[in-house]
Amino acid sequence: MTTDDLMILLGGLKLSAWYAVLSIATGLPLGLVLGLLGTAPSRLVRWTTLAVVELLRGLPLLVVVYLIYFGLPSIDVVLDAGPALVTGLAISAAAYTSEIFRVGILDVPSGQREAARSLGLTGWHELRHVVLPQALSIVRLPVISFAVLIFQYTAIGFAIGLPELLARSYGIGSVTFDYLTVFLVAGGFYAAVSIVASALIHVLRRDKSGPAVLPA
């Protein structure tokens, strides 16, 4: 494999990373909203949210991307391959991280909420200043782990013609016929991202400092 081939793969890596960043930046806030709705006092809201989340989680990611890229044009909604992939990944991220956020919110000790109310914090202020800081601290590690999966899932872009890392690897292999080397290098790029994320998770686990909490 030549230096030019390596540069082509690096370009694909950058594109995959960019799609992952956009998907995470869109999907995580949606997942947080769904997680909050999943802890709402209203049973109707909770069960409706659960039904939506389970429906989205039950669909294979490739099917979601195909529905967006190939299906929506039938109702005059046309997205290019990049936005279609990002939308599909964001939907998947929202569905799966919603449960992570929901559990994190429920894990905040009830005494913290009671202490917040005793200090006159209600509603939005309690959520913003007490619940969310602690919940986000609780879920940060699984969220980082899922973000790595989103990066790996960008390989699905190959199925709709995106020139991301996997597609460029296949393109080089189809010219050089050295598929083994090319895919080993591409796999090394994917693994490198996972290793960096694992190192970050290890550092965060060692960090015992968390958000300040109210005395229960």
From TrEMBL:
Entry GO MF terms: transmembrane transporter activity
Residue ranges of every copy of the ABC transmembrane type-1 domain listed in the record: 13-201
GO CC term, one of those recorded: ATP-binding cassette (ABC) transporter complex
Record keyword Transmembrane present: yes
Subcellular location(s) of the protein: Cell membrane
Membrane-spanning ranges: 16-37, 49-71, 77-96, 138-160, 180-204
Membrane topology classification: Multi-pass membrane protein
Organism domain of life: Bacteria
Key words, A-Z: Amino-acid transport, Cell membrane, Membrane, Transmembrane, Transmembrane helix, Transport
Keyword Ubl conjugation included in the entry's annotation: no
Signal peptide: none
GO biological process: amino acid transport
Coiled coil: none
UniProt similarity note: Belongs to the binding-protein-dependent transport system permease family.
PANTHER family, per the entry: L-CYSTINE TRANSPORT SYSTEM PERMEASE PROTEIN TCYL, MEMBRANE COMPONENT OF AMINO ACID ABC TRANSPORTER
Protein name: Amino acid ABC transporter permease
Taxonomic lineage from the root: Bacteria, Bacillati, Actinomycetota, Actinomycetes, Propionibacteriales
